[in-house]
Amino acid sequence: MTLLHQAQVSGWLRGHLLCRVDDTPGRFALTFDDGPDPAFTPQVLEVLARHGAHATFFMLRPSVRRHPALARRVLEAGHEIGNHGDRHLPLLVSPPPWLAHEVDSGERAIEQATGVRPRFYRPPFGLMFPSQARWVRSRGYEPVLGDVYPEDPQRPGIETITRRVLARLTAGSIVILHDGSAWVRMDRSQTVAALDRILAWAAAQGLKGVSVGELLDQESSEAGWPDRKA
Fold this sequence. Notes:
By secondary structure, the chain is α/β, with parallel strands linked by helices. The protein has a single domain (3-222), classed as TIM Barrel. 43% of the residues lie in helices and 13% in strands. The chain has nine helices and seven strands, in the order H-E-H-E-H-H-E-H-E-H-E-H-E-H-E-H. It has helices spanning 7-14, 40-51, 61-66, 68-76, 96-114, 130-138, 158-166, 189-204, 212-222, and strands spanning 27-35, 56-59, 80-83, 120-121, 142-143, 174-178, 208-210. Helix 6 links the parallel strand 4 and strand 5 (142-143). Helix 2 (40-51) runs parallel beside helix 8 (189-204), helix 4 (68-76) crosses helix 5 and helix 7 (158-166) packs parallel to helix 8 (189-204). The longest helix has 19 residues, at 96-114.
């Protein structure tokens, strides 16, 4: 079982990272990490379009640099781009200047490719200290993790990925999936196939897949708060 689903760890993470958004009936957020990937990101986009769903894609600087047109295609399809940094190294063992490098280099690549500054940041491996999260917020980002992670990078099988998501998915959840790879390109076809099943099941339960921004903005509007869109 991933550390994210262990009560003590998840409680600590929820203290300083956005892991879910309560009071958002009928919706959950889909997120994808480590792309864009020329083989699997288009397949993910096709599945999302078929189900009328949206997602947030947390992109890495090297991947954006290699595939800027694909990054733009994600945005043009109505999805959201988040900042996932540069080297995908764990922040918990990195010197303080490394966080600034990660955020700034990822931001520059995404802005240059798409003309849009990301609103959300996801730390590599989903881990950062509270002080690091405060620094990220001072830069205008919301640090995001999630509360449903089926460990799809390990390619445990389509059925296993699907089952792990459905066992934990509720309204307000943020699901962590992968359309790319940090260092060596990996096959993400299991994730694509599982996504189709997850969205079909969710629709039957009256749940719609949206971006993190849409999930937050729904919470804001229903609470009568000002619209928080950038």
